[in-house]
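Figure 2 data, in text form.
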Amino acid sequence: MGQMLETVIQFFEESNWAYVREDEEPTLQSAFQGDNGEWSCYAFPDEDQQRFTFYSVCPVQAPEDRLMTVAELITRVNYGLVMGNFELDFDDGEIRFKTSIDVEGDRLSLALVERMVMANVEMVDMYLPGIMQVIYSETPPAEAVAHIEGECECGHEH
């Protein structure tokens, strides 16, 4: 087992965060319960490339007739995000948030894993109501983002 995978496992275990290791792959799958919903999370420590990527997959998919509206929302949200970004798969409507780091020439520390994972799930929890609102109502994306970011007291730069 590589150092990166060991560090990610240590984070999950010290946080009492249940996870499953996918077969012999270095991929870990988990779930996160935020204030606004529950969703799947995936940790990908890549020892060969010296990169660690963490994904949160939103619990809803954008239906075909709402893809462009959700794409606008995600573009508006991503503009100004300092750490991580939302992604939209136009083929199946999957919405996910990605944080990643390249540690070539250094090492993946427990503090880095914690910061990346927590920043990731905090952003998903913050924006999930806006994503749901845009998918299930006629709320314009700009209005949904303004509403969320107007209420944000998390100290993140948007």
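Caption note: The helical segments are 3-14, 67-78, 110-136, 141-151.
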